[in-house]
Specification:
Distance between the termini: 133 Å
Strand content: 15-25%
Helix content: 40-55%
Radius of gyration: 53 Å
Largest sheet: 7 strands, mixed
Number of helices: 64
Low-confidence stretches: 142-146
Number of strands: 39
Shape: elongated
C-alpha cells in the first residue's frame, strides 16, 4: 500500500519525538542511526508505537551490534515483559547480502512462527579490527560499497523480526540456532555464487570442446545451451559439487570429489562416512548414457525460498565411455525461468518441437495453437523432468478432456523412485478446495504418500489444473496403481454436489415431491457447505430449512460427525435471519461445552430467500459425557435446552451445564435457577457464577435437589410424599459429608432450605392451553428459610422468569401494599424489604397489615430509542409477576375456599391478596384488575385499588390532604394557622405530580420560594401568595406540565426557572438572601443550588417527589441506596426548616428524621404523613368486596356499583382524613409527654421487642444506653420514633385482638357498620354483617381508637398495672369510651383548633386520658373478668350521662372550690365554659362508676348516693390524697403499680364508707348532708384520729409511698369502725 502524505507526516512527527527523547538521554543512539533505522519501516509500525518504544528498539539493536567479529552474524531471540511487548523479538546483525530477509522469514515460517513485523535497515557502519562498532554512519547510500570488508566502513543488514510470544528459553535457543544456520547458508551461497555460475559456464564450454562420444551431439548441445541459460540469471545457484561413480559398501554409489563443493555443498562430507549404495533402479538411471539430469532434490532450500531444490546434473564419462560421475548443480529456477516462453528455453524448446512433430499439428492450426497453449501453461518442472513420450500423451489427452469437460489424472514416477508427480485436470466450474482435498486423499491413499505438495492453476481455460507431488516414505518403492480405477475415483470426486443432491432427493422423496425442492434449492448451498457435508446431510438439513416458516424461525440439530473424533459432537442452527456469534457462543459455554470451531453457511433459494446454517463443533468437558447417555437422549436434552433459551423460555447461565452433566431437563434446571436467583437476592455473600459453579461441581446433589423439589410439589407424584422427601433429604445429607468446600456446603444447604420452606409452586401447573408455564413462582414460609435477613414476613412469593423477577412480602394473611417497578436488579428484595417496613407502619391504621411487592423487568428496550416499547415490556413483566402471585393464591366461591389447580399446598387456606400502585406502576391498577378478572379471582377489581372504577387518589388529592394534616398540626404547635397565615416553602416535585401538586394547593397562603424536580429548578425569592397560588392551580390543571410552563412574569425579582442540565445557574441577591447563602455567591451548579435549597431557613420543606434527600450525619450515601441524589443530599442536623411534610415516600431516611427532630425540626415519618392513600385504598377494597357480593347476589350491576362508589368519595375522604388527624393528635400528645413518659416508653419498647415483632435496630429506635442518656438529659423520644411505636403498638394490639373472641361480640356490629358510609349499612346491613373481613375491620377500628385516644402506651400500661389480658383491657376501654362519651368530648376539643394553643388542647386530651386510665383499670379490677360490652355499657352509661353535668353541684367544700378554680383556669386560656367544666370534672366523673355500683348493690337512687359519695369524699379529704398520689414518681414499673394501687385503695375506701353511711341510715333518708352528719357524729373519735394522722401528710411537700400507705391504713380503720357498728 502506498504511503500517503498523511502517513509521511505522522511518521516524521513520530521520529522527531524519538529524536528529542534520545537527545535527553545520555548514551542514546545517534540521530543518524534512528533516522536510518526507521527510514523504510512501514508507517503503521512507526506511528503505532510510543517514542520510548521506538527508541528502545534502536537501543537494543545497537547493543547487539556493539561487537561483531568479521564474517559472523549476531543473532538473539528475546521475550520482553508483557507490559513492554506482546511478542518475541528476533534480532540479527550481519554483513549485507542478498536473500537475508527472505531466508530468515522462510525459516521462521517453516518453524510455524507467525511474523508480526519486520524492520530491516541496511546501514553503513565502521568497525575496528576486533569487530567493535565504532560508529553508525547511517543508511548505505552507495549500493555495494563496503560489502565484503572486515574492518573500516562496512555495509550491514540489521533485522528486527517480531514473532508470536515464546516464553520457553529452550525454544528461543532453537530459533537462534536455526536462524544462524540459515544465515551461514546464505553467506556460503552468496559468497560462492559467482564461482558456481562460472563453473556452469565452464562445464558448458567443456561439453562443447570435449564432446562425449557416447552422447548424441544434439543432446550435448542441449545441455551446454541449458547451462549457459541457467547462468544467464535464470537459476539461483545455491550449491554445486562433483561426484564419482564408484564402489561403496554394498554396491556402487556417488562419491563426492573432495574440495569440489561450493555454496551449500562447500563442506566436504566426513572422511570416515560411507556413502550409501544406489538401488538397482537408481543405479541404472545413473549409469544411463544420458547426459543431462533435471529433477527435484529431496531437500528443501534454506536460502531464498523454502521449497525443494531444483537439481541439474551433468554426467561425466570415463575413457571406456561409461558414466563415471556427475557434476551437480543445486538451486532454484528464477521467476524469469518460469515466465520465459518454452520456445526460448534451451532443452525445453527441443521437447516442444518433438511434441508438435509427434502430434502432427501444424503450429498455426487450431489444435496446434491449443496444444501450444497447453505446453506454455504446463508445469515447467514437469516439462523439464518428463520425457517426450509422456508429454505427448498428456498434452493430447488434455485437449480431449477439455472438450469433454472431464476430469483426468496423469502420473509420472520420479526417475529415482522418490516421489510421484500427478497432474490432475478438472473442469473449472467443478474445482473447489473440497474437490482438491478429495482428489489429494485419493492420490495419497493410492500411492501411500508420506507428504503431498501441490500447486493449482485456475485460468480462463475450461480446465483447472492441480499438480501434486506425492513424496514416498524413505526406501519405499512406487506402487503399481490401476490408472483406470484411479481416474474413475477422481472423476467421482469431482462430480458436483448439486448433481448428487438432486439424485438423492428424487431417490428419497420421490420425483414428484423432490421436483419443487430441487428446483428451489438448485445451486442454493454454498461451496463451503458442499465441501463440508455429504449429500445425505444436505437432505437432512433441508427438512430443517423447510420448517422455517416465520422470519424469526429457528431450528436445531445435534449430530455426530463420522469425520470428527469421538470427543466432538456437532450442532447446527438453522435460521431465516443472520445470527450473531455473541448470542450463541455464550449459550454453549453455559451448557458446559467448548466450541472448537464454527462454520457459517448462507443458503440462497431460487426465489431469493436467504437461509442460514451455522454448524458448531462442540467438545464436552469430560470424556465420558457424550457416552453417558444414548444419542437420542442427548439430542432430546440438548436441543430442548437450546430451543428453550432461544425462545426466551429459559435463561442461559452456568446452571445450563447441569442439562448434560446431571441429565436434567431445561425445565428442571429452571426450578433450580429460580431458587438460586432467590438465594442471590437474600444472601449477597456469593456471586451468581459462584453459586452456579458450586451446584455444577456437585451435580449429583443438584439432581437430588431437583428430585426433592419434585417430590414435594409435583401433584402427580405417587406414594407417600413425606417419605419420599425424607429419603431424598437423607441422601443429600449423606452427600454433604463429602463436600469439602464450606462455601459449596452453605450454598447447597441454602437451596435445600428454600425448597423445604416452600409452601406452593406453579411449576407443575399448566397454562390455559395445557402448555408449560414460562414463569416460575414459589410461595415460602420465610421463618424456615435459612439465613434470611430480618424482618421475616409471614409469607413470601418469589416469581422468576427470563423476562421478570419479583418478590411479594406479606406480614400477615390479610395484608396489602403496592407493587413497585424496581430498577435494582441485584437487590430489589432488599429494596422491597425496606419499603414493607414503612408499609407496615403505614398500614397500622387500616385493616390489612403491611405487604409490598417489587419486580425487575429484565428485557427492557432502551427507552431513549422507543419509550412505547419500553413501557409495553414493563407492563408485560408486571402482568407476569401478578400471574405468578395469583397462580398460588386460593380463590373463594361465597364462603368456600377454592385451591388453585395442580398445586400442592403445604399451608392452610390463603385467599386474601390485594395489591396497589407504587413507583412505576401508578397507572397499572386496571391492568392488575384485568389479570384478576382473567383468573376469575374473587376480589375482581378490588384486587388492585385505584383503577378506573376506584378512587382516583390524584383527583381526590387524598395523599397530599392526609400529609397536610400533619403540616397543619406542626404549624399549630407553633401558633400558626396555615390556612390564614402566609408561610414559606421549599418543595420537591412539580405541579403535574399528585402529591406535590395537590399539596401546594391546600393553602392559599403558601409562599413557594424554591421547587425542583428531575428537570427544572424553580426560584421565586419573594412570591406573591395569591398570584402564585392561582398560577399553580393553572399548572396543576395543565396536562403534563413542568416548571418551564410557569408564567415567568409572575416570578418575583431575581427568580426564574432553570434546567437541571445547565452547567451553572446565576444567583441573584434576592435568591441569595432568601436561601441565606454565603455573601458573594453569584453562581452555583444545579446540584449545589438544590443542596442549598434543602438547607434554606424556610418554614416548610414539602416532599412530593421521588428520592431520598435527607440522611443522618453518620449514614453514608451508599447506605441510602439512591445514587442519583447523592450530590444534593443533606444531613438532618443541618436542616434549617421548621417543619417537614412527607407527602412522598422515603424523602428522608429514618435516622435523618430522628437527627432533624433532635435538632428541633418538626416532622413525623412518611408512613404517618402519607397514610391517607393506603387508607383510601383499603376502604375501596373492602367496599368492593362488600358490593361484589351484592352484585353476585343480583342486587347491583356494575354501572350502579360504580355510581355508588363515586357518590361516597367525599365520605371516604372524611373518614380517611379523620385517621390522619387523630394520629397527629396522638403524636402531639406523645411529644408533650416525651420526658415524663420515657420510662414507660422504654418498657413498651422492650415489650414490643419480646412479643410485638419490633426489631429496634431495623427501626432505628435508640438502644437502652442512649435512652438512659436522654433520660439524664431530660429528653425523651422524638416524633419519628413515636411514629414507629404508634405503628407497632397498633399492630401488636390488632394481632392479639384477632386471636381473641372480642371481634365476635355482638355489640361491636355497630363498629363494623361505622366503617362504611351510612348509605351502605342502610342498604346492605345483612351483607356487611357477613363481610369476609368483618373481624379484621372491627379489630382495626378498635385498635385505632384505643391507641389514638388512650395513647401509645395505654393498653400496655393497663395490662402491666392490672395483669389483665389485652382482650380484657380492650373490652374495658370500649366500655369506658362509650360510658364517658369520649368521642363527643374529643370532638369538642378538636373544635378549638386554631382558637386555643395546641398545648391547651393537649391538656384537655390528657385529662380525658387520665379518666380512661382509671376507668379501664376499674373495669378490669372491679368487674367480672369476661366483660360483656352491651350489658356493662348499659349498666353505667345512664348514671354517668345523668350526673356528669351535675358534678359542679354535687361536689362540696374544697372539691367544689378546686372544680371552680380549675374551670376558671381553663376559661382563662380560651376554653369555652361548658368544655372547661367538663374537663375539670372528668376525674370526678370517674367516681360515678362507684356510685352506679353502690346504687345497684344497695338499691338506692343514684340521686341519693351521688351527693352522699361526694360529701364523704370531702369529709375524708380524698381530693387532697389523690393529689398527693399523683405526685408520686413513676420512673419504673413498680412505682407505677404502686401509684395505681394507692389510688384504687383510696377509691375503694371512699366507696366502702359511702356504703357504710347508707347501711347505717334510715331507708327514707335522702339528704346527703344529714346522712353524713349522722355518720360523722357516730364515728367522731375515729374520724378525729384519722384527721390528725392525715394532717401530717398534708404538711409533706413530696409524700412518699410509705407515708401515703399509712394514711390509707388510717382511713381503712375508719371503714372498719363503721363496719363493726353496722
Amino acid at each position: 500500500m502506498p504511503i500517503t502524505t498523511i502517513d509521511k507526516q505522522q511518521r516524521t512527527e513520530a521520529l522527531a519525538e524519538v529524536g528529542h527523547l534520545a537527545a535527553s538521554i545520555e548514551g542514546a543512539p545517534e540521530a543518524e542511526l534512528i533516522e536510518a533505522y526507521f527510514r523504510h519501516a512501514p508507517a503503521e509500525d512507526v506511528t503505532s508505537r510510543s517514542p520510548r518504544g521506538l527508541l528502545d528498539l534502536v537501543i537494543a539493536h545497537r547493543e547487539l551490534a556493539e561487537q561483531r567479529p568479521a564474517g559472523t552474524a549476531m543473532v538473539e531471540c528475546v521475550t520482553a515483559p508483557t507490559d513492554e511487548s506482546a511478542h518475541t523479538i528476533v534480532r540479527v546483525v550481519t554483513d549485507d547480502m542478498p536473500f537475508l530477509v527472505d531466508s530468515v522469514r522462510g525459516e521462521l515460517m517453516m518453524m510455524d512462527r507467525r511474523i508480526h513485523a519486520i524492520l530491516h535497515p541496511v546501514l553503513a557502519v565502521e568497525r575496528d579490527a576486533t569487530g567493535a562498532l565504532l560508529r553508525v554512519i547511517g543508511e548505505q547510500d552507495e549500493p555495494g560499497r563496503g560489502r565484503g570488508r572486515a574492518v573500516g566502513r562496512l555495509t550491514e543488514s540489521w533485522m528486527h523480526v517480531e514473532i508470536d510470544r515464546e516464553s520457553d528459553p529452550a525454544e528461543r535457543e532453537e530459533i537462534v540456532a536455526r536462524v544462524r544456520s540459515v544465515l551461514s547458508d546464505v553467506r556460503e551461497s552468496v559468497e560462492d555464487w559467482p564461482k558456481m555460475r562460472e563453473r556452469a559456464r565452464q562445464v558448458a564450454s567443456t561439453l562443447r570442446s570435449e564432446v562425449p562420444a557416447q552422447v548424441p551431439s544434439a543432446e550435448v548441445t542441449q545441455a551446454a545451451e541449458l547451462l549457459d541459460w541457467l547462468a544467464d540469471n535464470h537459476f539461483t545457484f545455491l550449491g554445486c559439487r562433483d561426484y564419482l561413480l564408484g564402489a561403496v559398501p554394498g554396491g556402487m554409489g556417488l562419491i563426492p570429489v573432495p574440495g569440489s563443493g561450493l555454496g551449500l555443498l562447500r563442506p566436504d562430507p566426513p572422511m570416515n562416512e560411507d556413502r550409501p549404495a544406489l538401488s538397482g533402479a537408481v543405479l541404472a538411471k545413473a549409469a544411463e548414457p544420458k547426459l543431462l539430469i533435471v529433477t527435484k532434490a529431496n531437500s528443501r532450500s534454506t536460502v531464498h525460498r523454502p521449497v525443494h531444490l531444483d537439481y541439474v546434473g551433468v554426467k561425466t564419462f570415463g575413457p571406456d565411455g561409461a558414466v563415471n560421475g556427475e557434476r551437480r548443480f543445486l538451486g532454484l529456477f528464477t521467476a524469469s525461468a518460469y515466465a520465459e516462453s518454452v520456445l526460448r528455453v534451451p532443452y525445453l524448446r527441443d521437447k516442444v518441437a518433438a511434441i508438435m512433430e509427434r502430434t502432427g499439428f501444424a503450429p498455426d492450426s487450431h489444435s496446434g495453437k491449443d496444444l501450444m497453449g497447453i505446453l506454455e501453461e504446463f508445469p515447467r518442472d514437469e516439462l523439464f523432468q518428463s520425457d517426450v513420450d509422456l508429454l505427448v500423451e498428456v498434452a493430447t489427452s488434455v485437449l480431449s478432456v477439455a472438450e469433454k469437460r472431464q476430469a483426468r489424472v496423469f502420473v509420472r514416477p520420479d526417475d529415482f523412485g522418490r516421489y510421484v508427480a500427478a497432474l490432475v485436470f478438472i473442469p473449472r466450474d467443478r474445482y473447489t478446495t473440497a474437490v482438491r482435498l478429495r482428489v489429494e486423499a485419493i492420490l495419497r491413499e493410492a500411492f501411500g504418500a508420506a507428504s503431498v505438495d501441490y500447486t493449482a492453476r485456475v485460468s480462463e481455460s475450461p480446465l483447472a489444473r492441480v499438480s501434486y507431488v506425492l513424496r514416498l516414505p524413505p526406501h519405499a518403492t512406487v506402487p503399481s496403481v490401476d490408472l483406470e480405477d484411479l481416474n474413475a475415483r477422481v472423476a467421482a470426486a469431482t462430480r458436483t454436489w448439486d448433481e448428487d443432491f438432486a439424485d438423492a432427493a428424487v431417490a428419497t422423496l420421490g420425483e414428484e415431491s423432490a421436483g419443487p425442492l430441487v428446483a428451489a434449492y438448485r445451486n442454493a448451498f454454498p461451496t463451503s457447505y458442499k465441501e463440508d457435508f455429504e449429500v445425505s446431510q444436505g437432505l437432512a438439513d433441508l427438512r430443517h430449512l423447510e420448517s422455517l416458516s416465520a422470519p424469526d424461525s429457528t431450528s436445531f440439530a445435534l449430530y455426530k460427525s463420522p469425520h470428527h473424533p469421538e470427543s466432538i459432537r456437532r450442532f447446527k442452527i438453522f435460521r431465516r435471519s443472520p445470527l450473531s456469534l455473541t448470542r450463541v457462543l455464550p449459550l454453549f459455554t453455559d451448557l458446559g461445552l467448548e466450541v472448537v470451531d464454527e462454520r457459517p453457511y448462507e443458503v440462497e433459494r431460487a426465489d431469493g430467500t436467504m437461509l442460514y446454517v451455522y454448524d458448531f463443533g462442540l467438545r464436552a468437558p469430560a470424556d465420558d459425557l457424550w457416552g453417558s447417555m444414548t444419542h437420542a437422549r442427548l439430542r432430546e436434552l440438548l436441543e430442548a435446552a437450546v430451543e428453550a433459551v432461544w425462545a426466551g423460555k429459559a435463561e442461559s447461565d452456568g446452571l445450563g451445564a447441569l442439562v448434560l452433566r446431571a441429565q436434567l431437563t431445561w425445565r428442571q434446571v429452571v426450578a433450580l435457577r429460580a431458587i438460586t436467583k432467590y438465594i442471590r437476592q437474600t444472601q449477597s455473600t456469593f456471586s451468581e457464577p459462584y453459586v452456579h459453579a458450586a451446584l455444577v461441581h456437585n451435580w449429583q446433589i443438584a439432581a437430588d435437589l431437583v428430585a426433592l423439589f419434585t417430590a414435594r410439589f409435583d401433584p402427580n407424584a405417587e406414594g407417600d410424599r413425606e417419605a419420599a422427601q425424607a429419603e431424598i433429604i437423607q441422601r443429600i445429607a449423606n452427600a454433604l459429608d463429602g463436600v469439602h468446600s464450606l462455601d459449596e456446603d452453605k450454598i447447597i444447604r441454602a437451596c435445600r432450605g428454600v425448597i423445604l420452606a416452600g409452601l406452593r409452586t406453579n411449576h407443575f401447573q399448566p397454562d390455559g392451553s395445557g402448555a408449560e408455564k414460562t414463569y416460575f413462582s414459589l410461595k415460602l414460609d420465610p421463618t424456615k428459610v435459612p439465613d434470611l435477613p430480618a424482618p421475616r414476613p409471614a409469607y413470601e412469593i418469589w416469581v422468576y422468569s427470563p423476562r421478570v423477577e419479583g418478590v411479594h412480602l406479606r406480614f400477615g394473611s390479610v395484608a396489602r401494599g403496592g407493587l413497585r417497578w424496581s430498577d435494582r436488579r441485584e437487590d430489589f428484595r432488599t429494596e422491597i424489604l425496606g419499603l414493607v417496613k414503612a408499609q407496615m407502619v403505614k398500614n397500622a391504621v387500616i385493616v390489612p397489615t403491611g405487604s409490598k411487592g417489587g419486580f425487575y423487568a429484565k428485557q427492557l428496550p432502551d427507552p431513549a430509542l422507543d419509550r412505547a416499547a419500553w413501557l409495553a415490556e414493563g407492563i408485560e413483566a408486571y402482568k407476569l409477576f401478578i400471574r405468578g402471585l395469583l397462580d398460588l393464591t386460593d380463590n373463594r366461591d361465597g364462603t368456600t375456599i377454592v385451591a388453585p389447580p395442580h398445586v400442592v399446598r403445604h399451608d392452610g387456606d390463603d385467599s386474601y391478596l390485594v395489591v396497589a400502585a407504587d413507583k412505576g406502576t401508578a397507572t397499572f391498577s386496571d391492568i392488575a384488575n384485568g389479570v384478576s378478572q382473567d383468573y376469575g379471582f374473587w376480589l375482581d377489581d378490588a384486587f388492585a385499588s385505584g383503577g378506573s372504577s376506584g378512587y382516583d387518589h390524584k383527583v381526590m388529592g387524598i395523599t397530599a390532604r392526609g400529609a397536610w394534616e400533619s403540616v397543619k398540626r406542626h404549624f399549630r404547635e407553633m401558633g400558626i394557622d396555615t390556612q390564614t397565615t402566609e408561610f414559606t416553602v421549599v418543595g420537591i416535585g412539580d405541579m403535574s405530580g399528585d402529591v406535590f401538586g395537590n399539596g401546594m394547593l391546600l393553602s392559599e397562603h403558601i409562599r413557594l420560594l424554591v421547587a425542583f424536580d428531575h428537570r427544572h429548578i424553580f426560584l421565586d425569592p419573594s412570591p406573591d401568595a395569591a398570584a402564585s397560588f392561582a398560577e399553580r392551580q393553572r399548572m396543576f390543571a395543565l396536562p403534563g406540565s413542568s416548571w418551564e410552563d410557569y408564567d415567568k412574569s409572575l416570578i418575583s425579582a431575581g427568580g426564574g426557572v432553570y434546567p437541571r442540565s445547565a452547567k451553572s445557574i446565576p444567583i441573584t441577591p434576592e435568591v441569595a438572601s432568601a436561601l441565606a447563602l454565603p455573601e458573594g455567591t453569584a453562581a452555583m451548579t444545579p446540584t449545589e443550588l438544590i443542596h442549598a435549597a434543602l438547607l434554606a431557613p424556610v418554614d416548610l420543606l414539602w416532599n412530593g417527589g421521588i428520592g431520598t434527600y435527607v440522611k443522618a450525619a453518620d449514614e453514608s450515601h451508599a447506605e441510602i441506596g439512591d445514587r442519583a441524589n447523592d450530590a444534593i443530599r443533606v444531613n438532618g442536623g443541618e436542616l434549617r426548616v421548621k417543619v417537614v411534610g412527607e407527602g412522598g415516600n422515603l424523602g428522608l431516611s429514618q435516622l435523618g428524621r430522628i437527627e432533624a427532630a433532635l435538632h428541633g425540626v418538626r416532622l413525623n415519618t412518611d408512613a404517618i404523613d402519607n397514610s391517607a392513600g393506603v387508607d383510601t385504598s383499603d376502604h375501596e377494597v373492602n367496599i368492593k368486596i362488600l358490593l361484589g357480593q351484592v352484585m353476585r347476589e343480583g342486587g347491583l350491576d356494575l354501572p350502579a356499583r360504580d355510581e355508588l362508589l363515586a357518590s361516597m368519595t367525599d365520605e371516604i375522604a372524611h373518614m380517611v382524613l379523620r385517621d390522619n388527624y387523630e394520629q397527629n393528635v396522638l403524636l402531639g400528645n406523645a411529644r408533650a409527654q416525651q420526658r415524663s413518659m420515657l420510662p414507660v416508653h422504654v418498657r413498651l419498647i422492650h415489650r414490643l421487642e419480646q412479643e410485638g415483632g419490633l426489631n429496634r435496630a431495623l427501626e432505628f429506635l435508640p438502644g437502652d444506653i442512649e435512652l438512659a442518656e436522654r433520660m439524664a438529659d431530660d429528653r425523651g423520644l422524638v416524633s419519628p420514633e413515636f411514629s414507629v411505636l404508634v405503628a407497632y403498638s397498633k399492630l401488636a394490639l390488632k394481632s392479639d385482638l384477632l386471636a381473641s373472641s372480642l371481634p365476635d361480640d355482638p355489640w361491636l356490629e355497630r363498629i363494623l357498620r361505622g366503617y362504611f358510609p351510612p348509605v351502605l349499612w342502610e342498604r346492605y346491613a345483612a351483607t356487611i354483617a357477613e363481610h369476609p373481613l368483618r373481624r379484621e375491620i372491627i379489630v382495626t377500628a378498635i385498635a385505632n381508637s384505643m391507641v389514638n385516644r388512650g395513647g401509645i402506651t395505654f393498653g400496655f400500661r393497663a395490662a402491666e398495672e392490672t395483669g389483665a389480658t389485652v382482650e380484657q383491657v380492650t373490652r374495658a376501654y370500649v366500655i369506658a369510651r362509650e360510658v364517658f362519651g369520649v368521642a363527643d368530648y374529643f370532638a369538642r376539643v378538636e373544635a378549638l383548633d386554631n382558637k386555643v394553643s395546641t398545648a391547651v388542647q393537649t391538656g384537655l386530651y390528657l385529662e380525658m386520658r387520665r379518666l380512661l386510665d382509671r376507668a379501664v383499670r376499674w373495669f378490669v379490677t372491679s368487674r367480672p373478668a369476661a366483660l360483656d360490652l352491651g350489658s356493662e355499657i348499659e349498666r353505667y352509661q345512664s348514671v354517668v350521662a345523668q350526673f356528669t353535668p351535675r358534678l359542679p353541684d354535687l361536689l362540696v367544700g374544697s372539691e367544689a372550690r378546686r372544680l371552680r378554680d380549675s374551670i376558671g383556669e381553663r376559661v382563662a386560656i380560651g376554653v369555652p365554659q361548658d368544655l372547661a367544666m367538663t374537663c375539670a370534672s372528668l376525674l370526678d366523673s370517674f367516681s360515678l362508676l362507684d356510685i352506679a355500683d353502690i346504687s345497684i348493690e344497695r338499691r338506692r337512687d343514684p340521686a341519693v348516693v351521688a351527693p352522699l359519695y361526694f360529701h364523704a369524699s370531702e369529709q375524708l379529704r380524698v381530693d387532697a390524697l389523690l393529689g398527693k398520689i399523683t405526685q408520686l414518681p413513676r420512673e419504673d414499673h413498680w412505682e407505677s403499680l404502686a401509684r395505681g394501687a394507692l389510688r384504687d385503695d383510696l377509691y375503694g375506701i371512699l366507696e366502702s364508707i359511702t356504703m357504710a353511711v347508707l347501711d347505717g341510715a334510715p331507708a327514707d333518708e335522702s339528704d346527703a348532708a344529714r346522712l353524713m352528719e349522722r355518720w360523722v357524729a357516730a364515728h367522731k373519735e375515729t374520724l378525729e384520729r384519722a384527721r390528725r394522722s392525715l394532717a401530717g401528710i398534708d404538711r409533706l411537700d413530696q409524700p412518699s409511698i410509705a407515708a401515703l400507705s399509712v394514711a390509707l391504713r388510717t382511713l381503712r380503720s375508719v371503714v372498719r369502725a363503721g363496719a363493726s357498728e353496722r
